[in-house]
Every structure is written in C-alpha cells, then in structure tokens.
Amino acid sequence: MAFSSLLLVALFSILLTNAAAHPRHQAPKHFASHNYKDALTKSILYFEGQRSGKLPSNQRVTWRKDSGLSDGSAMHVDLVGGYYDAGDNVKFGFPMAFTTTMLSWSVIEFGGLMKSELQNAREAIKWSTDYLLKATAQPDTIYVQVGDANKDHACWERPEDMDTPRTVVKIDKNNPGTEVAAETAAALAAASLVFRRTDRTYSKFLATRAIRVFEFANKYRGAYSNTLKKFVCPFYCDFSGYQDELLWGAAWLHKATKNPMYLNYIQQNGLTLGADEGDNTFGWDNKHVGARILLSKAFLVQKVQSLHDYKGQSDNFICSLIPQSQYTPGGLLFKMDDSNMQYVTSTSFLLVTYAKYLTTSQKVVNCGGSIVTPRKLRALAKKQVDYLLGDNPLKMSYMVGYGPRYPQRIHHRGSSLPSIASHPSKIQCTAGFSVMKSQSPNPNIHIGAVVGGPDGKDRFPDQRSDYFQSEPATYINAPLVGSLAYLAHSFGQL
Predict the structure, then answer these.
(1) Is the model's pLDDT at 84 over the cut of 90?
(2) pLDDT in tens, 376-406
(3) What's the farthest any 2 CA atoms get from each other in the chain?
C-alpha cells in the first residue's frame, strides 16, 4: 500500500475514534442545567440560619448565635426554639407548621434519594417539631406566636439583641384557631412518618399529639384571624378559611395512622371542606391543592376508590398551569407580587410529586383532549427550578450563595447586620435602620435563602427595603427541598 494510502487509513481511523468518543450528533441523555446537589445542600442549610433558641454544638451557620432564650416565660411556659419565619424575629406558628409539613412531605417522597443530606433534612424538621410539641403540650391550647410583630417591625436588630416584647399568643376553647391548629396537626402527623424508621418512640409521640391537636381543631371551630386579629394580621391573616386545613390535616392523619376514622371524615366532609376547583394557589394560607394531590395518591397508588374525585381535581390543577398567561416573559410562574417564589417552589414540588404518583399508577392527565404525561410535569417543574437557580433574563440566582450572581441585599435582619463575632456590642432597636436603607451588601451570606423573587416582568432591583421581592422565608425553601432532591437524583448527582 502506498504511503499516502496508509496515511489516509490512519487519519480515517483517528476520525472514527474521535467520533466514537465525542458523538456530536447525539445529545447527552441527561443534561443537568445546574448543580442540583449543591442547591439541595444549601436549601437545607438555610434553616440553620433561621433557628431560634439555644443553638447546638454542630451548628454550621456560625454567624448566628443563641436568641429568644426566655421565650414563653411571660406565660410561664417553655417556648424556646423553633424558627423565625422570614427576615424578622417573630415566631409565627401558622407558617412554621406549614414549613414543617412541606419539609416532611419532601422527605417522605424523596428522602430516599437525598443520601448524605437526609440527616440534615431530618434535623431541620426536628428543630421545628420539638418546638411544636412544646406549643401543644397543654390540651385544647396551642401557643401560636411569640413576639409582637408590630413592635418587632419597628426595629432592625439582630435576633441575638432582641429587646422587643416577646408577647405570647395562644388559641384555646374560647379563642379557637382551626386553621393553625389543623395545620399543626398536619405537621406533626407528616413528621411522624419521617421518623418512623429512625426513632419509633418519637414518631409515635408525634402521631399521638397530632391526633389530639386535630380533635381540638375540629371540635372548636373558628378562624384565628378573627380571634387574634390584632396579633396575626396583616402578617399571617388567613384569607382562605379553615376548611382547607381541616381537609389537609385529616389527609395527613389518614396517611400517618391508617385509622379508617380519617378516611370516613374525608368522605363525609370532603365536599363541604373543598373549595372552588378554580382555586389553584398552594401555600401557607391555602392547602386545597396540596390536599387534593395528597389524597389522589390514596386513589392512584393505594386504590382507595372512594377518593377517585381527587384525581380529577388534581388534573384540573395541572391543566390550570398550561396557559402561558400565568408566566412572566422569561417563563416564571407568576401568582402575585408578594413573595411570588413561594408559589413557584410549592407548585414545582406538587408537579414532581404528582408525576411520581401518575408514573406508579401508569396514568396521565387529559387537558381538554391534550395529553399531559408525567415527563411533561417534571419538565415544567425543572424549568421553574432552573429559572430560580439562574436561567432567567437577569442571569440571577434567587438562592443566596448559589451561582455566580445572587441577591446581595436580602431583607433579613441577622444577615444584614454585623455578626456578634465582628460586632460584640449591642445594636439598638433603631440603629440598624441605617444599614437597612444602605446599598452595602449584607455582611453575612445567608446561604440557601430563597428570596421573594422578580416581579411579573422578570425585574429584580435587589433592594433590602423591598420585602415583597427581597425577603426569604422558610415556606419558600421547604417545598424546594423535595424538588431539588428529585432533580439531583435524576441527573445522577446524588
């Protein structure tokens, strides 16, 4: 063979080898837009920065120190612990309980995929349930708030420096609060499932307390927004009524206890507790959609035929997400100006969870003749999470500490003021407002905190005073944990 022919054969062989090693014509089966494992780690770490009480020796968020160590003393009860809900220093029981329920649901559905993060997720849940057990220790009484929100909001100070009144607010037989009681029952019941294999004694204790708390919620009915209006409104006023929490609480107790009493309760009361099926907003206030998705599992997977209507109602929710009018020009689900990202994270979680139930039962969703598969639901959830993590017009991650560009001036007292280590002397009530109004970046990076997010036109000014867009909250992060666990696993990162 001539030398030139040998050269051609060698070159052709090299080209074939390169083509096999780098098949450009084949897109990779799994292309991960983001490091979902890193985002998962950070989304759970965030909760340590929200802790109230005596911090443990393994506390990883070191710019936070002990706070609220006398909480409850005004009423001679121990209410030390729990979480600050957002960027202030008040402990609101209603959103804290919802946060706990959603963290627990995240672990129930996707904990098996979390690997090394599973224990951190459990600890985040237990920090809350330990507090909720204290708050429900007395029969027919729940302590639902610690702190005077109006006076707290008149200050900009670190939780470690708090000198505003730690007012204790409770519900009881004479001042009912069905929504917060039923949500607390849901949280305790859901958490009992999380600890069933690792701590059976604690799990049983949580379930027993959940049963008692739900009985109280159902027996003494009334909106806490009415009886405690001056304390809880406008901060966590309940606008959706308490029927959704009763259905939600019963659904979780049915799942946790398998007691037919709760299934009977749902069958007998489901229609009266249900809402207009056009009501498709899921968050700390409104649980209707979440309850429908949860109950649809009992029909789809456990074959409880009497709950078949919840499959249709869940499908209607899915179909409501299809019209493009619900999205910003950049593709973000947009429900409202105030902390919109909470609806993005909660909806994304419902999408991947319902996709799981549909896959197990080999079902799909039919939207007016258009078939929506579980794969499409997961793709929609991924698109929302990817937007949150930086695939958006501003190329901005809305999770602090994730990616090259993220919010620098979040509406959060502890993050915005110098830490105890760097500034040991007390910062007085109003002294911190000069920092709050400044353009300087927060000195303490609150890793994992997800802020309220952009407006309906994908704009985000990154202003500390803008609590609608710049304030993080526990109930934004809680459902995101489950979605990130699913995505990290599906792209081989866990």
Answers:
(1) yes
(2) 999 999 999 999 999 999 999 999 999 999 9
(3) 102
pLDDT digits over 174-198, tens only? 999 999 999 999 999 999 999 999 9
In a domain, 366, yes or no: yes
Buried b (16+ CB within 10 A) or exposed e, 342-360: bbbbbbbbbbbbbbbbbbe
Cα–Cα dist 305/299, whole Å: 6
User: Strand 141-146 vs strand 168-172: parallel, antiparallel, or unpaired?
Assistant: antiparallel
Burial 95-110 (b: 16+ CB within 10 A, else e): bbbbbbbbbbbbbbbb
pTM for the whole structure: 0.93
Q: What is the dihedral of CA 292, 297, 298, 300, to 10 degrees?
A: 120
CA atoms within 13 A on the CB side of 374: 12
Q: Identify whether 58 is part of a domain.
A: no
**Alpha-carbon gap, residue 132 to 78, rounded angstroms:** 11
Axis-axis angle for helices 309-320, 341-361 (nearest 10): 130
- Look up the CATH number of the domain holding residue 467: 1.50.10.10
- Does residue 50 lie in a domain region? no
- Helix residue ranges, H only, 111-223: 118-135, 149-153, 178-194, 200-219
Neighbours of 234 (CB within 10 A): 8
224: left (phi over 0), alpha (psi -120 to 50) or beta: alpha
Q: Judge whether 466 lies within some domain.
A: yes
Range of the domain at 328: 63-490
Query: d(Cα 333, Cα 328) in Å, to the nearest integer?
Result: 7
- Model confidence pLDDT, tens digit, residues 93-132: 999 999 999 999 999 999 999 999 999 999 999 999 999 9
Q: Are strands 365-367 and 168-172 parallel, antiparallel or unpaired?
A: unpaired
Side chain identity at 55, as an amino acid letter?
Answer: L
Cβ-contact 320, 351 below 8 angstroms: no
Confidence of residue 362 (pLDDT cuts 50, 70, 90): very high
Which of 189, 227, 224 is closest to 207 using CA atoms?
Answer: 189
Number of domains in the chain: 1
* Residue 92: strand pairing partners: 145
Active site residues: 411, 462, 471
Q: What are the residues facing 399 on neighbouring strands?
A: 450
- Say which residue the tokens 């470690």 belong to: 160
Tens digits of residue pLDDT in 417-438: 999 999 999 999 999 999 999 9
User: Do residues 42 and 448 lie in contact, with contact meaning Cβ atoms separated by under 8 Å?
Assistant: yes
Give the pLDDT of residue 278.
66
